[in-house]
Amino acid sequence: MIGIPLAGYVASIMVEKFPLQWINLGPLSKFPEGKTTLATYLNPYRRSWDGDTDLIPCWVRRLAGENFQIFAINCAHLGCPVRWFEESQLFLCPCHGGAYYADGSRASGPPPRGLFEYEYKIEQGDLFVKGGLLPTLADTNP
Amino acid sequence: MEKLRQLYFWIDDRLHLTKLFESTAGHHVPKSSGSWFYVFGSATLLCFIIQVVTGICLALIYQPSASEAYASLEYLSYDVPLGWYLRAVHNWGSNFMVGIMLLHMTQVFLFGAYKYPREITWLSGCILLFLTLGMAFTGQVLRFDEDAYWGLGIGASIMGRIPFFGQEVVNMMLGGPIIAGQTLSRFFTLHVFVLPGAIIALVSLHLRMVLTKGINEYPTPGILVDRKTYDAHYQTILRKEGVPFVPHAIDKDLIASAVVLGLILFLAAFDGPKMPNGLADPTQIDTVPRPDFFFLWIFALAALLPPYMESFVLLVGPIVLSILLFTLPFFNNTGEKSWRRRPIAVLTVVLVWLTFGILTYLGKTSPWSPDMQAWTKDETPKEFLVNRSPLELQGNLVLQYKQCRLCHAIDGIGGKRGPDLAEVGMRLTEPQLVRQVVQGGGNMPAYGKNLTRDEITALTAYLVSLRPPGIPPARDSTLPAKPAPETPVSAQR
Predict the structure, then answer these.
(1) Between B187 and which of B141, B251, B291, B456 could a Cys-Cys bridge form, CB atoms 3.0 to 4.6 Å apart?
(2) Quick one: pLDDT band at residue B484, thresholds 50, 70, 90?
(3) Burial of B464 (0-12, 13-18, 19+ CB in 10 A)
(4) Is the pLDDT of residue A141 over 50?
C-alpha cells in the first residue's frame, strides 16, 4: 500500500513537464554586432538552495542588427562547456575536442550535430532567450 | 574460577555463542584456501568498513546542499581538526575498495570459483561491483565542484541518448530539467542511504553464500567440477584437510588487511585529500572537466568511438557486459577450474586489463583535447624560426595567432589533437597543405572562410619549411620525379 505513494513521489519528476521559458538577457547594446559573447541568465526553475548552479551561461552571436544566434554552452557530444575562440572563429570543447564553426554547425570531432540553439526574441530593446533546460540529444528543440 | 566458568556456560547457553562461532568465523575451510590469493575479498570488506566509518564522520559536517556543499568541504578540510585526514582516508579508501575488488574478481575468475555450486556468490559479487562503482560516481558528485557539475552533464548527456524516453531519464537523474540543488540531494541520498544499504544487504548474502557453499578450494589442474560429484568431493576435502577459518586460515587475511589499512592511512597522510576543483559555477567555463580515476576509461571511450556507433556502445555496451558477467557461471558451470588449463580465461583477463588500462591511460593524458592556452603560452622553438624568409615568418605568426597550436604541437610543444607539425613539410606538398587548411577534413575544421589568401600563402610557406635539415620538401608523387627523357623521333613513328 505504501508502494503507490512512494512510486508516485519518486517518479513524478519523470512525468512533470518543464516548458522552456522566456528569460531576459539584457539590452541589445550588451551584445556588439559581429561578435560572439558569453551571457548568463537565471534558471527559471531555480530554488533558493541551488547556490551558483542557478546561473546558466549561453553564447550570444549577434550577426547584425536584430539578427542573433543563441547557443547552449553545452557541447552536443556530452554536455561539456564549449569555449569561443575569436581568432580562429571556432567553438572548442575541452572534454573530447569537439569543434563548431561560428554559426554553431559541427566542424569536427565527436559531436553528432551542431551546437544546440535557443529561440530568441527582442522586446522593448531587450534580448530574450527561451531556456531553462539542460540540452541533450533527447531534446531536439531546446 | 568455577563461578566464571558457570557464568560463561550460562551466557553461552542463552546466546548460543559457541554455535554461532562454529557456523560463522569458525566454519571449516579447505586448508588450501589459506592462500595469499584468497585475501582480496576480506581486504575489500575492510575498505568498505573504513568507508562507512569515515563516511559517517564526514556526514557530521558535510552539507548536502548545492549552496553549502563546497563551503562545508573547505571548512572540513581547513578548520575541523583532522577533517582533512578523514577526507583523504575516505578518498583513498574508495580507490582501494574499487581496485582490490577488481583484483578479487580477477582471482575468482581465474580460479574458477564462480562455477558450480557458487553461482549466487558470483552474481552477488557482480552486483556489488556495480554498486561500488555507483558509490564512486555518486561520491565524486558530492564534492560538488566543477568536475562534479560537468561530470553530471556528461552523465545526463549519455542518458539523453536513450531513445523515446531520454528526457524523462535525464529529469529523473537530475531531479529536474537542469543540474541544480535537487541533483546534489538525490546523489547524496544514493551515496549515503540507497547504495550503502544495498551493499550491506548484498555483502550479507555474499558472505552467507561463502558459509553455506564453502570457500573455493585451491584448484588443482586436472580435477574437474562435475555437478553430480562436486558436493561429495568438497565434503571429502573438508574432512581430510578442513581447518576452522578462525584461527587457522585467517592469518594471511589479517596481514593483507593490515597492509591495506597501512597503505590507505599512509597515502592519505602523504597525499592529502582530493580538494574540490573550483566552485560548481556553470558560468566558469574556463575548465577542463575530468572524471575520477575509475571512470577515465569511459571518458576515453567517448572520445575514441566513431559518432555513428557511440550512442549504441554507450547504451547497449553496459547491458551486454552485464549479461556476460551475470550469465558466466551458467554457460561455464562445470569443468576445469585451474587457470593453468584455461588459456581462454587467462587471455580474457589479460585483454580486459590491457583494454581498461590503456583506455584509462588515454583518459588521463587525453590527447584528443585541444590545449586551450597553447596559442598564448607555447613558444615556437628557435630552430623552427631561424633561416626563414619574411613570408615564412609571417606564416608562423598566422599559425600562432589563428590558434593552430591548440591542436598542433611543434616538436612536442602544443596541443596533441592533430599531428605534430615539426616535419609536416616533408609529408605534405604546398597544394596539399593549402587544401587541408582551406577545406579541413580528417578531424580538422575548414579555415577557408577565416583566413585571407595572403594568410594562407604565408602559412603554407611556413609549413613547407618545417622539415629536418637537408630533407627536400614533399613532392607530388603523381608527377615524375625527374623530367622524362625526350622520346627519340624515330620511336614516335
Answers:
(1) B141
(2) low
(3) buried
(4) no
Q: Which domain holds residue A27?
A: 18-131
Nearest chain A residue to B64 by CA distance is: A49
**Domain covering B22-365: architecture:** Up-down Bundle (1.20)
Task: Give B166 to chain A, closest Cα distance, Å.
Answer: 5
How close does chain B come to A82, measured CA to CA in Å? 7
**For the segment B324-338, what is each residue's pLDDT rounded down to a tens digit?**
999 999 999 999 999
Q: Is residue A8 part of a domain?
A: no
Q: For residue A105, is it within any domain?
A: yes
CA–CA distances in Å: residue B365 to residues B293, B296, B353: 12, 10, 18
Name the E strands within A28-124: 36-42, 55-64, 67-72, 83-85, 90-92, 99-101, 106-108, 117-118, 120-123
Q: Does domain B374-465 have CATH number 1.10.760.10?
A: yes
**CA–CA distance, B122 with B119 (Å, rounded to integer):** 5
Reported ipTM: the value is 0.95
Would you say B30 and B241 are in contact if contact means Cβ atoms under 8 Å apart?
A: yes
Within 195-254 of B, beta carbons closer than 8 Å to A belong to none
Domain limits, chain B? 22-365, 374-465
| Peptide bond just before B117 cis, omega within 30 deg | yes
pLDDT tens string B39-67: 999 999 999 999 999 999 999 999 999 99
Q: What is the pLDDT of residues B265-301, one digit of tens each?
A: 999 999 999 988 888 999 999 999 999 999 999 999 9
Residue A122 sits in a domain whose CATH number is 2.102.10.10
Cβ separation of B162 and A138 shorter than 8 Å? Answer: yes
Q: Pick from B191, B142, B140: which is nearest to B293 by CA?
A: B140
- Contact of B367 with chain A, judged by CB distance below 8 Å, is answered with no
Average per-residue pLDDT for chain B: 94
Q: Which of residues 274-313 of B touch A (CB under 8 A)?
A: 279-283, 285-289, 299, 302-303, 305, 307, 310-311
Distance from CA of A8 to the nearest CA of B (A): 12
Give CA–CA dist A100/A104, Å, rounded: 5
> Does residue A138 lie within any of the structural domains?
no
Measure CA B339 to chain center.
Answer: 26
Q: How many domains does chain A have?
A: 1
In a domain, A4, yes or no: no
**Cβ proximity of A28 and A127 under 8 Å:** yes
Which residues have a Cβ under 8 Å from the Cβ of B459 and sit 6 or more positions away? Answer: B395, B398, B399, B402, B433, B437, B451
pLDDT digits (tens, 9 = 90+) for A66-105: 999 999 999 999 999 999 999 999 999 999 999 999 999 9
Contacts 24+ apart (CB under 8 A), B170-176: B170/A134, B170/A136, B170/A138, B171/A13, B171/A14, B171/A16, B171/A18, B172/A11, B172/A13, B172/A14, B174/A134, B175/A13, B176/A13, B176/A18, B176/A45
| Interface size, chain A vs chain B, as Cβ–Cβ contacts under 8 Å | 202
Residue A61 has which C-alpha cell? 552571436
